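User: Could you go from structure to sequence for me? I need the amino acid at each position, not a summary. Structure tokens:
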């Protein structure tokens, strides 16, 4: 696997927060999101798009060839009226995870609250998602410094290992997070 890229779909304003979470944000929640957007933006190979990104633009980001064959998307997810998992975009749009899976170039592996792919139980906050992604990227770089490429399964395991750490009560303030790992092959973990 080539080095993954990350796309953090976190709201950047009170309006986009309301579109994503269907709730009014507190001043503290907005400040925390701003800090997390900055942290994600400092991770190598990470994009934090503006709040106007729509589903078509997200799908085109997935097709952009930059030498990576894996993309990690971080954003808020929920079930739609049909019971399907959707990713809530800061623009107010929704994209079904099945649409990402059906995209011609890629298959998806999904880490979400209560998700089976990673064996996650409960919710994952945006703050904890940042820690998970950062740990996965650090493990990838360490393996490449040792002269070998990390597999997707190893990336999943490094991210899952962080999930087992204790979460602080403040972690729950920003909402639920979905991480979608998009690549050429689905890893069963």
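Assistant: Here is the amino acid at each position, in order:
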């Amino acid at each position: 696997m080539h080095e993954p890229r990350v796309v953090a779909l976190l709201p950047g304003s009170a309006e986009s927060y309301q579109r994503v979470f269907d709730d009014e944000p507190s001043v503290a929640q907005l400040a925390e999101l701003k800090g997390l957007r900055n942290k994600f933006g400092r991770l190598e190979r990470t994009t934090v798009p503006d709040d106007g990104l729509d589903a078509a633009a997200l799908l085109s980001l997935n097709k952009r060839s930059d030498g990576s064959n894996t993309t990690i998307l971080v954003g808020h997810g929920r079930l739609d009226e049909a019971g399907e998992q959707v990713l809530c975009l800061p623009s107010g749009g929704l994209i079904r995870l099945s649409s990402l899976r059906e995209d011609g170039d890629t298959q998806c592996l999904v880490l979400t609250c209560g998700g089976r792919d990673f064996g996650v139980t409960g919710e994952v906050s945006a703050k904890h998602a940042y820690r998970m992604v950062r740990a996965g990227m650090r493990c990838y770089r360490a393996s490449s410094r040792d002269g070998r490429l990390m597999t997707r399964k190893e990336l999943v395991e490094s991210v899952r290992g962080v999930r087992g750490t204790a979460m602080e009560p403040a972690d729950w303030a920003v909402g639920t997070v979905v991480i979608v790992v998009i690549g050429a092959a689905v890893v069963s973990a």
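One structural detail worth keeping in mind: The helical segments are 14-21, 27-42, 55-63, 97-102, 126-145, 152-163.
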